[in-house]
């Protein structure tokens, strides 16, 4: 629902009694943002988090398993990497269009596309981390009686964690960004208020929704940094 404005003026959303800032379409109307937080911004923010978490978790599982298999079977690293890279190079909107005939204008379409964009980053991060484990460390572990499974769980994966977390951070931030484009497919996520603000150029809605997406990316990245430090305490000891 929109208010009526003179020709040539921006169409300001009619959300009740408007302040002077809203009427004049100021750069950012804090009062309007606070008033509309629970209805205009909070639901899309929750939906955005939901989309990102699902995509990153599924993408991580697929890419992690593929990387471990490729690490064991070296000849698979090339083909898997080529497929993952091809999916990553597809423009997001083009991938959405390719999927719509099969999965429709649904959240499933969005999730499949988002998962595809995480694969190559996480795959390469896991594979690089495992490959970087020094041979003398692995030989020492085998000499202590560890079998291949124990070597992977107790030596290789722990030492590869910094690389894995780094890849996960990049993939998560990228997913937060691409998820805003999902508004072209489903009316969900922070892309929804951004898209609506573009069609009705109200500065506050556009700026606030975009800022929330950027803030969300920082929050996810910060959380992963904390998780990474918690899982790799030896890196902190080495730095200090």
TrEMBL record:
Cell location: Cell membrane; Membrane
Kindly state one GO CC term assigned in the UniProt record: plasma membrane
List this protein's GO terms for biological process. Answer: glycine betaine transport; transmembrane transport
Cite the InterPro entries for this sequence: ABC_transp_perm/SBD (IPR051204), MetI-like (IPR000515), MetI-like_sf (IPR035906)
Q: What residue range is the signal peptide?
A: none
User: What range(s) does the ABC transmembrane type-1 domain occupy?
Assistant: 45-224
Instruction: Indicate the transmembrane segments per the record.
Output: 49-69, 76-100, 112-133, 159-186, 206-228
Xref: Gene3D superfamilies: MetI-like
Membrane topology summary: Multi-pass membrane protein
List keywords of the entry alphabetically.
Membrane, Transmembrane, Transmembrane helix, Transport
**Any one Pfam family match given in the protein's UniProt record, by short name:** BPD_transp_1
Q: Which CDD domains match?
A: TM_PBP2
What's this protein's family per the entry? Answer: Belongs to the binding-protein-dependent transport system permease family.
Spell out the protein name for this chain: Osmoprotectant transport system permease protein
The record lists the organism as Brevibacterium sandarakinum
């Amino acid at each position: 629902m929109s208010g009526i404005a003179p020709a040539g003026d921006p169409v300001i959303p009619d959300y009740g009694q408007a302040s002077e800032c809203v009427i004049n379409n100021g750069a950012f109307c804090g009062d309007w943002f606070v008033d509309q937080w629970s209805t205009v911004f909070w639901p899309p923010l929750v939906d955005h988090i939901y989309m990102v978490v699902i995509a990153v978790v599924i993408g991580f599982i697929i890419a992690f398993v593929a990387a471990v298999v490729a690490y064991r079977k070296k000849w698979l690293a090339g083909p898997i990497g080529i497929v993952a890279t091809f999916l990553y190079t597809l423009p997001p909107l083009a991938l959405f269009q390719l999927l719509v005939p099969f999965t429709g204008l649904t959240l499933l379409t969005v999730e499949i596309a988002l998962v595809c964009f995480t694969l190559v980053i996480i795959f390469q991060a896991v594979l690089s981390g495992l490959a970087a484990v020094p041979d003398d460390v692995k030989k020492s572990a085998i000499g202590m009686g560890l079998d291949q499974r124990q070597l992977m769980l107790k030596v290789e994966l722990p030492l590869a964690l910094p690389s894995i977390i780094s890849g996960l951070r990049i993939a998560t931030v990228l997913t937060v960004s691409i998820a805003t484009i999902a508004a072209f497919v489903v009316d969900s996520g922070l892309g929804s208020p951004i898209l609506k603000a573009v069609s009705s150029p109200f500065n506050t809605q556009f700026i606030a929704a975009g800022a929330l997406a950027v803030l969300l990316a920082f929050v996810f990245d910060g959380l992963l940094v904390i998780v990474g430090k918690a899982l790799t305490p030896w890196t902190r000891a080495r730095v200090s």
